[in-house]
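User: Please check token order:
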Amino acid sequence: MAKPGTAGHIGVMLSRFFGRRPSPRAAPEAPSGTRIYAIGDIHGCDVLLERLHGLIRADAADADSLRKVIVYLGDYVDRGEGSRRVIDMLVAGPPPGFEAVYLCGNHEEMTLSFLEDSAIAPMWMMNGGNATLYSYGVRFGDAATPEARYFAMQKAFRAALPESHLDFLRGLAPYYVEGDYLFVHAGVAPGRPLEEQQRQDLLWIRDEFLDSSADHGYCVVHGHSIVDEPDQRPNRIAIDTGAYYSGTLTCLVLEGDERRFLHS
């Protein structure tokens, strides 16, 4: 027994009063028998996505007995002129033998918002929405005022957008959980239970989440905030490597307590 007044004795007394300190958190794990492939922000880079799907198929050649899940972290459109083809590829479903989970990014949210309100066009196009419109054959036109031009573009986009693409965009999930991992586009508000998270934070949050060392209850796998290379922290893993300008689309591979990366 530690002597009264010593640091050890004080630690024992605090432990008795508040409860014992938890042991260090174990390494997060994917569910047994499952291999997860999480793909970062695609942003209209259809060629990179096609190449990455090929790398995933090759990587999974030794995993016939495993359940294989591809989790797409959102931001499929904008910035890259292959936006429409990316959606075509995703609507067609994952490679044979894989399950797929499609999460919503803030750029999909802006795309859907434009379909309802053309007034957001300047903000959306400033963030790459012009590339999405172009990929669907929508041009700026020559209406007399910017407002009339945006309204005409909205009408043309509605006409050009296949029903299957609209259904896909409307059906995107805000987050997904597998084992000890939480997959989400942008991140989570620290200190808030998952069931109380706000959609705005899941799709848009940055510094409050990125700067936090809090235990979020899961290891959070996210995109949204660009990194030069995958950024692995105790509480999160960032995998948006800026495909539309870097030429690198990243996939995190999780199996058991192991993790590795594929890049196209």
